[in-house]
Each structure stands twice: as C-alpha cells, then as structure tokens.
Amino acid sequence: MAISLDTTTVAQVERVLARDRIAMPLPEAISRRLGVESWMLTLGPDGELRAITVLADAIDPLAERPETRSAGPPLDRALPLPPKGVLARILGAPTATGRQLADLALRRDDPEIRGEAVRVAVDAMMHDPSLEKALLGALDTLDDGALAQALEGVAGDAAPGLVALVAERARGRPLGRRAAGVLTRFGTR
Question: Which pTM was predicted?
C-alpha cells in the first residue's frame, strides 16, 4: 500500500527541499523532511517534482501522535506544532524536535517566533512529564545564577522574558518553580 501526498504538501516539500539541497544530498533531505526511508518521487518532463508517494510499510503508526514517542533522547523527539502557526510555516513541517524549538527560542530575533517555540516546548512537557524530568535532570548541574547567565549569553536581552514565559506556562510544576528561581537571578550579578 502507498500513500500519495496532496499537491499542496508536495509544493511545500519542494520549497523546503530547495533550501536543503545545498546542505545535503536530495535522498537524505527527503528522508529527513518526510521522516521515512521508503518513498518514491514522480518528476515531470521538465524535471520538476510532481508527486511524492510514501510507502505504507514505512509509515510509523505513532506518527499521528508524535508526543507519545519515547524513543531517542528527549531533545530529538518530534513535538507537534500548531497547524497554522508561525513555526509550522518556518520549518515546513507539522512537528519540530526539542532541539529545533530550543534553537528557535534562544537564537531568533523575532519575539513571535521565540514565544511560540517556548509555548510549544512547555506545553509538550506538560503533556509528557518524562520530557520535563529529562530537562530538569540536565539542568541539575547548574545553579539558578549560572543558568540565568548561560541563557543571557545565548538569548541576550530576551532571556528574562523567555524564562518568565516558562514560569507562567508551567506554574505549579517543577519546571515552573525552577524557571521562577532563575528569573529572580537576572540582573543580580
């Protein structure tokens, strides 16, 4: 059995692949973007991409609910994005890894992008406590002051706002308490 992607999705994949072709071979770019290894492309006479067919035995039954995946490190898990949100448009995909979200939250200049990345990541942790636990475990080696300083080094002046957003969205949870502690350390050095 095979599943053919609709023309809108094919056009979206084509735009994203155009960016990826510079960095990696086409087969690798397609596999990364589709998240499957078994696929078939149909090219038109002009060499343009006309259709993408994903072979059904390559489809992961958990792909519809990526937040339930537990394989791999927490930062590499696929997390669902709001369907019409800014992150889905930027990444050209319905999901993003924790690594991608962290990069978008800490390194982008646009506050809308930063905010949505933080909201998606925190919401994912609220739905999957193992993600929250993994993040807090990774941060256990840093005290609140050192973590505030590290975040300022990466996110600059936006760091306090990002941490405040985490504290607000995760209020009453261990992540929210840790963020509130870090928030008090900004500007105290």
Answer: 0.59
